[in-house]
Amino acid sequence: MTAAITAADPMVPRVARVLRRRRNGPQVFTLDVEPEDPAPAFAPGQFSMLTAFGVGEAPISASGDPAEPGRLVYTIRAVGPVSSALTRLGPGDLLGLRGPFGMGWPMVEAPGRDVVIVAGGLGLAPLRPALYRLLAERARYGKIVLLYGARGPADILFRNEIESWRRRLDIDIAVTVDHAPPDWRGHVGVVTRLIARADFDPLHAVALVCGPEVMMRFAIAGLGEAGLADDAIYLSMERNMKCAVVFCGHCQFGTVFVCRDGPVFRYDRVRSLLAVKEI
Amino acid sequence: MEGLERIVKEHPFFAGMQNAFCDLVCGCARNVRFEAGQYLFHEGEPADWFYLLRHGRVALQVAVPGRGAVTFQTMAEGEIVGLSWLIPPYRWTYDAKAIGLTRAIAMDAKCLREKCEADHDLGYEMMKRFMPVLIQRLQATRLQILDVYGTPA
Which partner for A247 in A169, A239, A243, B124 could form a disulfide, CB atoms 3.0-4.6 Å apart? Predict the structure, then answer.
């Protein structure tokens, strides 16, 4: 006998409608979507499974403001059939939505401490909800430092927002690019070089790191050299998430499941796994 | 000279250095400033000086045919510009250009090399301070050439 699929079935997506589509860079788009049911609350760092109907499903981190009701925001790079189909959706188009899933950034542990955010490339998207929360509750934190690296100036995400955050004067922001055209007047070099230049108290700080895994490994080394303990560093891992609810095991990472125990992990808990090439 | 000594000792690169070594090093130092667009040095020239940045930013560039001057790294306050003075043939392998007004301590490389040769304790101290800079630059270059933000295949 086949079990009846109910609305509570975690594998059944709710239907959502695209409200807005913005281009953020080469092959990168941000969709604002509104579920037909009330939008579920999400914690900064959590992800959802988005369905491009007739194509497939992909895990995408929320990139919007967790305090903004009614809509969910996702920033997507078109790299495969599903993400490409999602980025082609426009206002009024429908998509499927499951989640949010997983463990987010340590917003409970961070108050009272300096917060150092190290983002690389599209890794700024899963960190943006944390930045919204930090800035909304600014008085609860020490220094807030955002170190962001992109491939080139055209790849810098959320440029207008970064500029508006800079104008606040209560957050230190440094942006660098790996490759610069002649008219670029900002920093050139990898994001990890910004860590040594940043002003924060390593004994009373927490670091949130998101980007390509190689970049995160270098960033962790840089944060360690700056004096941060391993248990003060959090990173968002990307693995092959399929079901998002620990049914399938595709995202198993050693003894943990990225969909349930992550995607955000405290570094000391996954340190040994990061060194294993086979996983 | 007293002011220069204080500035040299306060630079992160020389932080914690013994006074005796600092005095030797300061004998090779002088204060310099560069206006925006001015070059600290050019590729191919003798590496007779290196620079401890105190203020401003410097672009390290290589001229690429058809693309002009390509900046591959920028250096900021507290950092060192110029490593080729350490290793023969002591010639710059890139251009260094001030992006904005830049203040620095210029170290006479020939003077420092001679002092390091005469006093191997000083030489070892300088090597211990330069090696981490070299390693960090090498690691950063590794990450940069991996082009990790490139669109996955």
Answer: A243
- Tokens 């590496």 appear where? B47
User: Whole-angstrom Cα distance, residue A196 to residue B13?
Assistant: 12
Judged by CB atoms closer than 8 Å, whether chains meet at A197 and B143 is answered as no
ipTM value for the complex: 0.85
Nearest by CB to B144, from A178, A182, A196: name it: A178
Report chain A residues whose CB lies below 8 A from the CB of B148. 120-121, 211-212, 214-215
In angstroms, the separation between the Cα of residue B15 and the nearest Cα of chain A is 15
pLDDT at B151: 59
Could you read off the pLDDT of A44-79 as tens digits, one per residue?
Answer: 999 999 999 999 999 999 999 999 888 899 999 999
Distance from CA of B90 to the nearest CA of A (A): 24
Task: Tabulate helix, strand, coil % of chain B (nearest 5).
Answer: 40, 30, 30
Q: Give the number of A-B residue pairs with CB atoms closer than 8 Å.
A: 68
Instruction: Tell me how close the Cα of A218 comes to any Cα of chain B, in angstroms.
Output: 8
Taking the C-alpha atoms of residue A30 and residue A32, their distance in angstroms, rounded to an integer, is 7
**Tokens at residue A220, please?**
């962790």
For chain A, give every domain's residue range.
Answer: 14-101, 114-236
Task: Note whether residue B152 is domain-resident.
Answer: no
A114-236 CATH choice from 3.40.50.1010, 3.40.50.80, 3.90.78.10, 3.30.930.10:
3.40.50.80
This prediction has a pTM of 0.90
Structural element, H or E, at residue B109: helix B109-118
Predicted local distance difference test score (pLDDT) of residue A279 = 60
B66 Cβ under 8 Å from any chain A Cβ? no
Contacts of B99 in chain A (CB under 8 A): 185
